[in-house]
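Slack export, channel: ligand-projects

TW: morning all. Re-posting the request from yesterday since it got buried. We need the structure predicted with the small molecule present, not the apo form. The ligand is adenosine-5'-triphosphate; the SMILES is in the block with the sequence. No rush, but it would help planning for next week.
GE: picking it up
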Amino acid sequence: MTESMLTVADAARSYGSVPALAGVDLTVATGDLLAVLGPSGCGKTTLLRCVAGFERLDRGAVTVAGRPVAGPGGHVPPHRRRVAVVPQDGALFPHLSVADNVGYGLDRAARRGGRIEEVLALVGLAGYGGRMPHQLSGGQQQRVAVARALAPRPPLVLLDEPFSALDAQLRAELRADVRRALRADGATAVLVTHDQAEALSMADAVAVMDAGRIVQHGTPAEVYRDPATPWVARFVGEAVLLPATVDDDVAVTPLGRLPLRGPAVGGAATVLIRPEQLRLAPTGGSVATVVRQDFHGHDALTTLRLADGTLLTARTLDEGAGLSAGAQVAVTVRGQVRAYAGSA
Ligand SMILES: Nc1ncnc2c1ncn2[C@@H]1O[C@H](COP(=O)(O)OP(=O)(O)OP(=O)(O)O)[C@@H](O)[C@H]1O
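GE: finished. pasting the full token output, ligand included:
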């Protein structure tokens, strides 16, 4: 079994009457990247700051590499936790060269041993050591911040929305490169983000957070395909949620009888269908009217209305091309669906 590099147990922290953390349990396996994904204000940054040691817990405990750093035994200050933080804006020292920024936390032996060049190469900046931060683009500055965090080989690296200030294309490139660098260096990391695509594409595991609690912890595929609640379903991607009646392993829905997977529920339920499960054809399914189509280049989201007024969103490729508002199509569902007890 893989050992945990980070354990957070029943962590609670309030600001006045606001419970920013309301009992968080979390583990990160050694060598993994965990994404903490949640909407603004759910407590992500507070969690990260409590792990780093910038904030104290009201209750609970944090263990890093088997060593208690917060909890009943006391509060280890940030600089003694061996936890590296990559902040949103990089926060490089402006008066130090790239090499000196990266080498800041290193002892002389490590500096001489070539670690600075090694981590700069890992983040794609070999040969940039002599530059000053202001001579770098925003994306390059973030790469330096990641290299600086990795340099002393900390047991844990925390990344706080590190790509949020970058434009979309740069962000995608940097995500992939930073993921590769972390993996190549064997680092264990926690990434805090409100961006589902970032969490699902980068992480080994995703902890979905809402109102100070972790509401689901699983692989990216698990939280997308098998969300714990309708709220998680909506938060991690486009979701079609339909009223249903469950009868054994079949849900009776406005789109017909659909096979179920996941935990059994009985009676009135809500089913989750992902837009890519919906297939459109000229005939041979439930009849729907096209309301509108939002073109995204690689695909399109087509909003449809069933005869009973139910709205659906289908992700379409060629089969939905050029459908205009008012057109009639037949909708079928591919694969199994997940049901939740009660109505949405
Ligand atoms: N220093 C503080 N003083 C008072 N309230 C705070 C403080 N820090 C955070 N909060 C409150 O705690 C809650 C959680 O905040 P936190 O910054 O952890 O959320 P977040 O998920 O990181 O949000 P965002 O994505 O917007 O940064 C919010 O309601 C916030 O207003």
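GE: first-pass observations. Residues 15, 18, 20, 38, 40-46, 194 surround adenosine-5'-triphosphate (CB under 6 Å). The chain has nine helices and 21 strands.
TW: perfect, thank you
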